[in-house]
């Protein structure tokens, strides 16, 4: 690998203001350009995020961050780990990186024209090669440790409605072998062919049960769509078109948002909406391990109609003295029972429950919509929690930072 010279590092850093101004324009053009030359790659990318602009904006932020930290790549370590796990879950391989690099540099030329000179382009070519090698090396280790390569056929052994919006799918290997192990908090990619788009589409779903070898369970929220967001292609196909006995194709478990099972210190699991799924896996695993750790399960949703795993959580709390729960309903229904279905009305406010969740040496695991996670992280930090003890998970094209 060719090393960046001091002049090339300076040239890359000098493009930071340009990327701040034109980054999204460049990345939108990049995707359009790449898909025109390689339409087969549409199978690897969430086309809904392409159409909404979320994916180009995310890539623009990533390119900007890389340029800004080109002389301090250690600062990108957590982001590299998270992105590499997503890539490995989607089966992105070394041969894809030259294609991306060629069209990313081509998009820079197409958008900026004479505003970027050849030495700067040469510097970016070397910088991209450096970044690609980092990802290829990181992903090679993930593939080496994976339970299988690519997408493997699984049968839907059971389908269970958890709430008005969330349904669980119990997946067993189609060849009859045992389900693989995984770390609680990890996810798999499930791919389905979307007629409307004419391509396969992968989506990532957290595993929502303990790793016990019987099945892999995913619990999927049906995305009905809103004024600012289209309906979810794959979630609707799973809810309406996938029944028990159906074969789906699944990637090996990936993800670095995982419970540290070696610790004995307290755990606070915090979720919003469908973010409850990795938390049920973490809690189920602690129970299966016979852990005596103090656990507080904090969940926020709209009301009981969309409160997945409600009965399971209540029964689990009742039978485990080391487990406590705190539930917030934002819009309480007439039949919702305080103290049984929920504990507080309104949005989750960590300051309101500080006496229940601020525990010495506790680790805090948070999953939910990005604004929800930001609010909980900022609230915990304001209450004196060390940032190193706050762990968050992000799907799609969001970012907590």
From TrEMBL:
<feature type="domain" description="Globin">
    <location>
        <begin position="3"/>
        <end position="140"/>
    </location>
</feature>
<dbReference type="InterPro" id="IPR039261">
    <property type="entry name" value="FNR_nucleotide-bd"/>
</dbReference>
<keyword id="KW-0479">Metal-binding</keyword>
<dbReference type="InterPro" id="IPR001709">
    <property type="entry name" value="Flavoprot_Pyr_Nucl_cyt_Rdtase"/>
</dbReference>
<feature type="site" description="Influences the redox potential of the prosthetic heme and FAD groups">
    <location>
        <position position="86"/>
    </location>
</feature>
<feature type="site" description="Involved in heme-bound ligand stabilization and O-O bond activation">
    <location>
        <position position="31"/>
    </location>
</feature>
<dbReference type="InterPro" id="IPR017927">
    <property type="entry name" value="FAD-bd_FR_type"/>
</dbReference>
<keyword id="KW-0285">Flavoprotein</keyword>
<keyword id="KW-0560">Oxidoreductase</keyword>
<feature type="binding site">
    <location>
        <begin position="394"/>
        <end position="397"/>
    </location>
    <ligand>
        <name>FAD</name>
    </ligand>
</feature>
<keyword id="KW-0274">FAD</keyword>
<keyword id="KW-0408">Iron</keyword>
<feature type="binding site">
    <location>
        <begin position="273"/>
        <end position="278"/>
    </location>
    <ligand>
        <name>NADP(+)</name>
    </ligand>
</feature>
<comment type="function">
    <text>Is involved in NO detoxification in an aerobic process, termed nitric oxide dioxygenase (NOD) reaction that utilizes O(2) and NAD(P)H to convert NO to nitrate, which protects the bacterium from various noxious nitrogen compounds. Therefore, plays a central role in the inducible response to nitrosative stress.</text>
</comment>
<keyword id="KW-0349">Heme</keyword>
<feature type="active site" description="Charge relay system">
    <location>
        <position position="139"/>
    </location>
</feature>
<dbReference type="InterPro" id="IPR023950">
    <property type="entry name" value="Hmp"/>
</dbReference>
<feature type="site" description="Influences the redox potential of the prosthetic heme and FAD groups">
    <location>
        <position position="393"/>
    </location>
</feature>
<keyword id="KW-0561">Oxygen transport</keyword>
<dbReference type="InterPro" id="IPR001433">
    <property type="entry name" value="OxRdtase_FAD/NAD-bd"/>
</dbReference>
<keyword id="KW-0813">Transport</keyword>
<keyword id="KW-0521">NADP</keyword>
<feature type="active site" description="Charge relay system">
    <location>
        <position position="97"/>
    </location>
</feature>
<feature type="binding site" description="proximal binding residue">
    <location>
        <position position="87"/>
    </location>
    <ligand>
        <name>heme b</name>
    </ligand>
</feature>
<comment type="similarity">
    <text>Belongs to the globin family. Two-domain flavohemoproteins subfamily.</text>
</comment>
<feature type="binding site">
    <location>
        <position position="187"/>
    </location>
    <ligand>
        <name>FAD</name>
    </ligand>
</feature>
<protein>
    <recommendedName>
        <fullName>Flavohemoprotein</fullName>
        <ecNumber>1.14.12.17</ecNumber>
    </recommendedName>
</protein>
<dbReference type="GO" id="GO:0008941">
    <property type="term" value="F:nitric oxide dioxygenase NAD(P)H activity"/>
</dbReference>
<dbReference type="InterPro" id="IPR009050">
    <property type="entry name" value="Globin-like_sf"/>
</dbReference>
<dbReference type="InterPro" id="IPR012292">
    <property type="entry name" value="Globin/Proto"/>
</dbReference>
<dbReference type="Pfam" id="PF00042">
    <property type="entry name" value="Globin"/>
</dbReference>
<dbReference type="InterPro" id="IPR017938">
    <property type="entry name" value="Riboflavin_synthase-like_b-brl"/>
</dbReference>
<feature type="region of interest" description="Reductase">
    <location>
        <begin position="148"/>
        <end position="401"/>
    </location>
</feature>
<dbReference type="InterPro" id="IPR000971">
    <property type="entry name" value="Globin"/>
</dbReference>
<dbReference type="Pfam" id="PF00175">
    <property type="entry name" value="NAD_binding_1"/>
</dbReference>
<comment type="similarity">
    <text>In the C-terminal section; belongs to the flavoprotein pyridine nucleotide cytochrome reductase family.</text>
</comment>
<feature type="domain" description="FAD-binding FR-type">
    <location>
        <begin position="149"/>
        <end position="260"/>
    </location>
</feature>
<keyword id="KW-0520">NAD</keyword>
<keyword id="KW-0216">Detoxification</keyword>
<feature type="binding site">
    <location>
        <begin position="203"/>
        <end position="206"/>
    </location>
    <ligand>
        <name>FAD</name>
    </ligand>
</feature>
């Amino acid at each position: 690998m060719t090393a960046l010279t001091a002049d090339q590092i300076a040239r890359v850093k000098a493009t930071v203001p340009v990327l701040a101004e034109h980054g999204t324009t460049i990345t939108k053009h990049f995707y359009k350009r790449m898909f025109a030359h390689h339409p087969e790659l549409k199978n690897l990318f969430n086309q809904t995020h392409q159409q909404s602009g979320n994916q180009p904006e995310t890539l623009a932020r990533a390119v900007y961050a890389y340029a800004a930290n080109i002389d301090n790549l250690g600062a990108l370590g957590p982001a590299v780990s998270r992105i590499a796990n997503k890539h490995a879950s989607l089966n992105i391989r070394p041969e894809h990186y030259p294609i991306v690099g060629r069209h990313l540099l081509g998009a820079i030329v197409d958008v900026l024209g004479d505003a970027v000179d050849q030495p700067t382009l040469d510097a970016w070519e070397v910088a991209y090669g450096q970044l690609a090698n980092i990802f290829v090396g990181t992903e090679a280790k993930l593939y080496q440790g994976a339970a299988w390569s690519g997408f493997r056929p699984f049968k839907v052994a059971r389908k269970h409605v958890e709430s008005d919006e969330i349904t669980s799918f119990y997946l067993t290997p189609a060849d009859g072998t045992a389900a693989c192990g995984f770390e609680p908090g990890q996810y798999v990619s499930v791919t389905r062919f979307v007629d409307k788009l004419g391509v396969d589409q992968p989506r990532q779903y957290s595993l929502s049960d303990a790793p016990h070898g019987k099945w892999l369970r995913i619990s999927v929220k049906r995305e009905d769509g809103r004024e600012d967001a289209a309906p979810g292609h794959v979630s609707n196909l799973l809810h309406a078109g996938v029944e028990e006995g159906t074969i789906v194709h699944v990637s090996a478990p990936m993800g670095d948002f995982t419970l540290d099972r070696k610790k004995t210190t307290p755990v606070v699991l915090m979720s919003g909406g469908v973010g409850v799924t990795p938390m049920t896996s973490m809690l189920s695993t602690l129970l299966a391990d016979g852990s005596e750790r103090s656990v507080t399960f904090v969940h926020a949703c709209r009301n009981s109609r969309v409160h997945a795993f409600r009965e399971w959580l209540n029964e689990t709390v009742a039978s485990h003295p080391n487990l406590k729960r705190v539930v917030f309903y934002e819009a309480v229904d007439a039949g919702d029972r305080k103290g049984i279905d929920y504990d507080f009305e309104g949005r989750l406010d960590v300051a309101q429950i500080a006496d229940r969740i601020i525990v010495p040496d506790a680790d805090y695991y948070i999953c939910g919509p990005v604004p929800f996670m930001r609010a909980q992280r900022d609230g915990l930090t304001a209450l004196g929690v060390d940032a190193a003890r706050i762990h968050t998970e992000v799907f799609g094209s969001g970012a907590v930072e």
